[in-house]
Amino acid sequence: MNLKRTFGTILTILGIVGLIYAAVGFVQQSGSPRELIVYGILGLIFFFTGIGLVKNTRDVAKM
What we know:
Blueprint: H1 3-28, H2 33-56
Helix pairs in contact: 1-2
Transmembrane segments: 7-24, 36-54
Keywords: Membrane, Transmembrane, Transmembrane helix
């Protein structure tokens, strides 16, 4: 498996976790709003960067 694709998958999962954490904190009103906004923005950045890496990395089989 390609290293870029693996790193993209890890970034995507971290982004999803960050977005879920920010959403749960927002709904439960736990933590400061600034903290939740930072988690949400970082989650979005990680998510879209990971999706971009997975999408744009070609899968070439070596023989």
